[in-house]
Structure formats: structure tokens, C-alpha cells
Design brief:
- The protein is an alpha/beta fold and 365 residues long.
- It has three domains: 2-209, Rossmann fold, CATH 3.40.50; 228-281, SH3 type barrels, CATH 2.30.30.280; 288-364, Elongation Factor Tu (Ef-tu), domain 3 (Beta Barrel), CATH 2.40.30.
- 25% of the residues lie in helices and 28% in strands.
- The protein is built from seven helices and 17 strands.
- The protein has helices at 10-21, 56-69, 79-95, 102-121, 165-169, 180-189, 211-222; strands at 2-5, 26-32, 73-77, 126-128, 133-138, 143-148, 171-172, 231-234, 240-244, 267-272, 277-281, 287-298, 308-313, 321-328, 332-342, 349-354, 357-364.
- The strands form three sheets. The protein has a six-stranded antiparallel barrel with strand order 12-15-14-13-16-17. Strands 3-2-1-4-7 form a five-stranded parallel β-sheet, sandwiched between helices. A four-stranded mixed β-sheet has the order 9-8-11-10, with no helix packed on it.
Length: 365
């Protein structure tokens, strides 16, 4: 049996239809991750819009697809695990002046961990998702390999670098060799109501992508002590240019909403939660050739014995750039790029590739 992680979107719905059409024994599972009514009415949160990822509308759409296909369907509640492993680290990272990647945490700690465990409990030995990625088994090394999706514009391996060999051995990515247009065409051919449904580009638990309003509302709900985060906005030479409402409102590379004026455009270069200072400067000041990262995960298992040539991606939409990757003690990593890269951001992932093979990744310090 194959369990399909059904989000209610066109991608996972098409996966379920493809596997069902091929004669596989399929069951649909939708993860209940966040109570969409939670924090409603808090200042700045606004109305909960329909059509967001993991909304009640999405659950309804996933159920309708399962009914159309005639496959069993269940909603499984992972709210506690999601809050523990995704939401709380997300809030803590912003409070520390970092910019987190919640989708990577969700894939590693929830979708390919908790959901896989649940799938096994109902007799499914594989889990299929709508990610644009590919997984294969190398018979010479015995290693399960993660490879980029063939549609470069949709490749999602940036969010999957934390998967283990065990998880990859159970994972299926049927869309890895398809384009988005081809997926929508297949969905229409299967008669799925979601064939033309727009993609979601929001963080599933943050309405309108207003993460600062979410952070304030979540902290208030948790009864967290009010820690001052407002402070000074300073230039690279330490001159005070103005004040800011809190370090969590800024990320490296940001230009808009700084609240200060200058003869030339200013960009956020650094946020320092300890001093509550936001350092700004010229666009050229954002360029760096080297980064340090921690909690490095090598998909094959052991790290290489010496520095290796890679291409490295520092954001989802960043074009992988040629670099040297050097494993360091205590699962740390140093990446040195051939050419300077713009806005290397603490809290984001750095993901390492060789051609289309994903070697692993780490969290940028």
C-alpha cells in the first residue's frame, strides 16, 4: 500500500490519481497541522483567507479528490508535533535575528517522519508526495539518492535536504520527471476538480505572509515575557541613522520598510538580537564569498573526507553557485564560493549539489 500525502492542491492530487491509475493500492492522508481559527482576532492577523496551503478548503478539496478516485481518505492530526518542531523553532529563530525555513523543518520532522510512521501503522510501506524531486537507489553504493526535479523552475529539493536514508527508501516522488504544465494536463485528464487550482506561496500557518503579526500574536498567546526588540538602525561604521520597531521585522537583503532615508539605497546587512541593532549599508556590502553553517546533514550518511567541489544554493530561488564545501568537526560546514554571493542569510539553508545529485545541506550561521 502507498500513502499519498494529500494537501488538496493539484500536485498531490495528481500523484494520487497517477498511482491509482497504475493499479497501486492507495490511501490518502491529509495532515492537520495548525488550527486555522487559532489566533483569530489578534491584532494584525486579519481575516483567514480561503485557498491557503493547509486551510479547511484544502482539506475539503483533498477529500473530494479521494472520493472521485474511490480511495480511502483520512485526516491525521499532527498539531502538537508541528507546533513543537516547526512553529516554536520558527518563532525562536526570528527572535534571535535569524530567517528560518519552516518548510524544511516540516518535511524532515513531520511529513517524512510522523506521517511515515502513521502510514506504516495502517499498512503502507511507502509515502508519496507532490514534490518536484526524484529519488533513486544506487546499486553500486547501496545509497538512496535524492536528485533535482527535471523542471528546474519547480525543483523542490531545497526543502528536502534533511531526509535520511530510511526516509528516502520509503519516499516516492512521481512528479519528479514532469513539468507543472504536464501535471495540470494530467489532472484535467483524470477529471480532478483541482486541475486549475492556483498554487499556494504562503507559509501555511501565517496568514497573508505577515510573519511579524503572527509572531506578536503567538508570543501573546503563549504568555511569553515581553522582551524588548526595538533598537537602533546603524551604518557599517556605527553611526545611528534612526530607530526600528524590532529586529524580527528585518531580514538580510531587505530594502523596503527601513524607516530611514539616505542619498543612496540602503539594505539590511545584519540583525543583532543581543544589541537590538540593525546594520544597513550599500548593496555591494551584501556580497560575501564564504559562509559557515551548522547541523550539516549528508544524505549518503558520512561526510566526505576532504573539501569537495559543489554547487551551493542559499535560497530556494537562488541559482546554485560553484563552491568548495569543507566538512568541519561537530557537523559544521564551511562553504567558499568561487564568486561573491548576495545576501547570505543566517537561519536559511545552504544546500549542496553535484550536477542534479543532492549531497545534503546545513543551517547558515
Amino acid at each position: 500500500m502507498i500513502a499519498v500525502a494529500m494537501s488538496g492542491g493539484v500536485d498531490s492530487s495528481t500523484v494520487a490519481a497517477m498511482l491509482h491509475a497504475e493499479g497501486d493500492d492507495v490511501v490518502g492522508l491529509t495532515m492537520q497541522l495548525w488550527n486555522q481559527r487559532r489566533l483569530a482576532g489578534a491584532p494584525g492577523m486579519g481575516e483567514r483567507r480561503s485557498g491557503r496551503c493547509c486551510s479547511l478548503d484544502d482539506v475539503h478539496d483533498a477529500r473530494r479528490v479521494a472520493e472521485t478516485l474511490g480511495i480511502p481518505y483520512y485526516v491525521v492530526n499532527f498539531e502538537d508535533r508541528f507546533e513543537q518542531d516547526v512553529v516554536r523553532p520558527f518563532a525562536a529563530a526570528y527572535a534571535a535575528g535569524r530567517t528560518p525555513v519552516p518548510c524544511s523543518l516540516c518535511n524532515t520532522a513531520v511529513k517524512f517522519d510522523q506521517l511515515l510512521a502513521t502510514a506504516r501503522q495502517i499498512g503502507a510501506d511507502k509515502i508519496a508526495t507532490g514534490h518536484y524531486a526524484r529519488v533513486s537507489h544506487n546499486p553500486q553504493t547501496g545509497v538512496h539518492e535524492l536528485r533535482r526535479g527535471l523542471d528546474d523552475s519547480k525543483d523542490q529539493t531545497f526543502f528536502l535536504w534533511g531526509l535520511t536514508q530510511e526516509q528516502l527508501s520509503r519516499a516516492l516522488f512521481p512528479l519528479g520527471g514532469l513539468t507543472k504544465a504536464a501535471v495540470r494536463a494530467r489532472a484535467a485528464g483524470y477529471g480532478l476538480q483541482v486541475a486549475d487550482k492556483p498554487d499556494s506561496h504562503e507559509i501555511c500557518f501565517v496568514p497573508g505572509n505577515d510573519y511579524t503579526a503572527f509572531l506578536d500574536a503567538y508570543a501573546a498567546e503563549q504568555g511569553a515575557p515581553s522582551t524588548p526588540t526595538a533598537g537602533e538602525m546603524v551604518s557599517t561604521d556605527g553611526r545611528v541613522l534612526g530607530t526600528h520597531p524590532g529586529v524580527q521585522h528585518f531580514t538580510v537583503g531587505q530594502r523596503k520598510g527601513l524607516g530611514v532615508t539616505a542619498p543612496n539605497p540602503l539594505y539590511v546587512l545584519q540583525t543583532d538580537a543581543a544589541t537590538r541593532r540593525v546594520v544597513v549599508g550599500a548593496d555591494s556590502d551584501l556580497m560575501r564569498r564564504e559562509l559557515a553553517a551548522s547541523a550539516c546533514h549528508w544524505i549518503a550518511g558520512a561526510p566526505p573526507a576532504a573539501p569537495i567541489r559543489v554547487t551551493a544554493r542559499i535560497r530556494h530561488r537562488h541559482r546554485p553557485a560553484a563552491a568548495w564545501a569543507e566538512p568541519l568537526p561537530n557537523t559544521r560546514l564551511r562553504v567558499t564560493f568561487d564568486a561573491p554571493q548576495r545576501a547570505i542569510t543566517p537561519g536559511q539553508s545552504v544546500v549542496l549539489y553535484q550536477d542534479d545529485l543532492v549531497l545534503g545541506g546545513a543551517w547558515i550561521d
